[in-house]
């Protein structure tokens, strides 16, 4: 029994060891650990879920250590009856490794982490704008080129404006864009003149 007691104590973190330092027997030690870390209380669930969703591969930590820590948290969650789908577990471990590896390998300073977030945001905005442009282009192309060959009583015509608008809308958009550019250029010139004066 003393060997079991010693093995359990040696496998504990220092912080945990302080919590159970008063225990003298294996049974009391085990019960104390169970009451501290295996309870199904709301606080314990929240704490483990926070650790689970906040896990990341920090700089200088090996991937094996990271995976071991991840598996420990998953086992702790299973012990309090919180289960995750294998697919979700795979996604989380993958993204916690990949994103942090990218940040740690080539961008080690905190200000570079902000740059990474900004770059990701810029890429997302660029993707969204490209998607919107492609959607408008596809809609307009179908409207102008393909729709005239479809029977006029076909239901698809209800999703499109009359053909007169196919010319009116681009001309109107071009005029609005030209006006906006003229106003912008005029505003910039006025500002530069005020700075010179």
Automatic annotation (TrEMBL):
Signal peptide (residue range): none
Family: Belongs to the DPM2 family.
Protein's name according to its UniProt entry: Dolichol phosphate-mannose biosynthesis regulatory protein
Species annotation: Acer saccharum (Sugar maple)
Membrane topology summary: Multi-pass membrane protein
Any one GO BP annotation for this protein: GPI anchor biosynthetic process
Subunit structure: Component of the dolichol-phosphate mannose (DPM) synthase complex.
Its biological purpose: Regulatory subunit of the dolichol-phosphate mannose (DPM) synthase complex; essential for the ER localization.
Main location per the UniProt record: endoplasmic reticulum
Transmembrane intervals: 127-150, 165-188
Listed pathway(s): Protein modification; protein glycosylation
Coiled coil: none
Endoplasmic reticulum recorded as keyword: yes
GO molecular function, one term: enzyme regulator activity
Keywords carried by this UniProt record: Endoplasmic reticulum, Membrane, Transmembrane, Transmembrane helix
GO cellular component: dolichol-phosphate-mannose synthase complex; endoplasmic reticulum membrane
Cellular localization per UniProt: Endoplasmic reticulum membrane
Alphabetized InterPro entries for the sequence: DPM2
């Amino acid at each position: 029994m003393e060997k079991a007691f010693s093995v359990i104590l040696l496998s504990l973190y220092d912080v945990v060891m302080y919590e159970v330092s008063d225990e003298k027997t294996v049974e009391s030690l085990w019960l104390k650990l169970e009451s501290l870390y295996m309870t199904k209380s709301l606080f314990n669930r929240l704490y483990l879920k926070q650790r689970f969703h906040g896990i990341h591969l920090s700089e200088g930590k090996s991937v094996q250590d990271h995976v071991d820590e991840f598996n420990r948290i998953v086992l702790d969650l299973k012990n309090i009856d919180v289960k995750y789908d294998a697919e979700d577990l795979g996604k989380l471990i993958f993204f916690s490794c990949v994103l942090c590896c990218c940040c740690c390998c080539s961008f080690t300073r905190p200000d570079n982490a902000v740059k990474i977030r900004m770059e990701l945001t810029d890429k997302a905005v660029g993707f969204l704008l490209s998607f919107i442009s492609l959607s408008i282009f596809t809609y307009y192309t179908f409207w102008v080129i393909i729709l005239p060959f479809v029977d006029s009583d076909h239901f698809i015509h209800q999703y499109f404006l009359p053909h007169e608008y196919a010319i009116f809308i681009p001309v109107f958009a071009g005029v609005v864009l030209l006006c906006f550019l003229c106003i912008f250029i005029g505003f910039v010139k006025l500002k530069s003149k005020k700075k010179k004066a």
